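In practice, a research group might receive sequence data for several interacting partners and want a quick structural hypothesis before committing to experiments. The following worked case mirrors that situation: the sequences arrive first, and a predicted assembly follows.
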Amino acid sequence: MLAGKQSWIFDSKPVITATGTVGGPFEANGAIPEAFDLLHDDLWIGEDSYEKAQTVLIEGAVTETLKKASLKKEDVNFMLAGDLVNQLTPSSFAGRTIGIPYLGMFGACSTSMEGLAIGAMIMEANGARHIISVASSHNTATEKQFRYPTEYGSQKPPTAQWTATAAGACLLEKTGTGPVVTKATIGRIVDMGLSDPYDMGGAMAPAAADTIAAHFRDTNSKPDDYDLIVSGDLGQIGLPICRDLLKQQGYDLDHSKFQDCGLMLYKEDQPVMAGASGPGCSAVVTYGHLLKKMQKGELKRLLVVATGALLSPLSYQQKESIPCIAHAVSIEANGGMS
Amino acid sequence: MLAGKQSWIFDSKPVITATGTVGGPFEANGAIPEAFDLLHDDLWIGEDSYEKAQTVLIEGAVTETLKKASLKKEDVNFMLAGDLVNQLTPSSFAGRTIGIPYLGMFGACSTSMEGLAIGAMIMEANGARHIISVASSHNTATEKQFRYPTEYGSQKPPTAQWTATAAGACLLEKTGTGPVVTKATIGRIVDMGLSDPYDMGGAMAPAAADTIAAHFRDTNSKPDDYDLIVSGDLGQIGLPICRDLLKQQGYDLDHSKFQDCGLMLYKEDQPVMAGASGPGCSAVVTYGHLLKKMQKGELKRLLVVATGALLSPLSYQQKESIPCIAHAVSIEANGGMS
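A structural hypothesis for the assembly, expressed as tokens:
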């Protein structure tokens, strides 16, 4: 089960039997609206705060997932959830409504794959019949907390990224129809001294490269074992840096092989600067877009490397650099589909 | 492995082969100074912020643990860590220094047992040779973030609790000498509508009762199967409420059977109001105090029910009530010791 230093090979191959994806207005106008089960045309979603709106996103993603699986909330053993808001209140408040026994995860934007990796691990140990893993973010809740309320209209440099308003959930079962989770690599925290919160992609690139190289080393695999490797949200700045770092280590990943969820979510003419970010970004692109490609037979072997910048506004004010992390999960079309 | 709805029985019985506990000045003058491997006489611990001081606490707890186990950092597969500070920066920064592949956990003060439960689950699936689980809190870092900087001298009601300045770590191995982790119950989020952040014990009591009852139900066990059941930080207000709620469900737990880590850490004459709190509280009381009792043969079967209040200053300002959770882990003296 443990492979090498920091990776897992799931012999039981837990199945992703259903997914649920919810987005906001910017995502509705983006490049992959068909990736979403539900799209809201307003950032408030009828709530009186952006944090409460984010809770609604999470509840929606979980409800959509359960609906497709014809399961009730009571059937699910555990819900693994996380987001970017202080003390993960959107996830906790959704956990309160949903009532499934709850495990809070935090890895910033890497939370999506942290939850999926731990969920698959619990399945591997026969620790659950059904697990929901959900990750989310909300653009204006995040802006308000990490930077400035958007109403201030403050400007940003082109290296900045646009936090997705999105929640993506998946249901794990021991058997069933759907893609299977085959491997995972848990990342180390890597900090190369970068401290610009308007260039998270650049800061996270070395962590992504570290985890990808560890994944190949630990699981004795190589780039050609995957049809596609996607990072979570390295964006236009971080992706080429990560590609360079991997090349130095002997892994030559070209554009068709190595892409970024943050560059798939929005259209080029949307004002998202260097691309999308947020735990919700990699969650919806993986669960809503890439797994649909897998269902259609366009993709068989996928490695999702969700990247996270573990800073806080306070750590930035205290002149700290940005510690970063990436967790990788390998998802493959199962026998019946391939 | 899965027992009932929300519990785990660990057939492999992962062993806690070493622990590390670090505290601050208030803990040094407390009721159980012998529970600590390392005590600092100053809250700043030579750093220029309380958050950085908390990072030093975590690094100390991990270093003490590894020293006792004669292991190097490189020998440990994963470090599971969490705290109360926004975006868990003290844990992330400690993870950066330590360099062990890292999984961030958030369950507020329940983080200590969330980490231990997930760590034991990873061991159960053969997902690691060595795992470190660490939880921490820092009194003044917490006050500053959740309430007011202590320098303001603001007053508090007697129902308020005192966040411990403490970090507690444990090392899990497949075999070895030490107490074993036998069961765990993952809690649901319970919110009875209480919204007073100066009475967390009262808010958390129903969540603790819910998890304890679920534990008995799921694992087909009863109070007499344990020598001692401890809640994490219900304090003087929450503990009797939880006792009453359990009595209504047919579980009569008297003082000798059901106690609270938050009432063990400090002396009665210390100005801690209703008792200690914080993820560091249940971590150091469990790893430093109760497991030492187990080593001496004074305790054989222990259930630690770490309790967490999942609020944020913002959710309070938005007039939300306090969602609460509790995770229970059963630790038993192993054959050789009992």
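Before designing any experiment, note the following. Chain B touches chain A through 57 residues (CB under 8 Å). Residues 228 and 257 of chain B are 5 Å apart (CA to CA).
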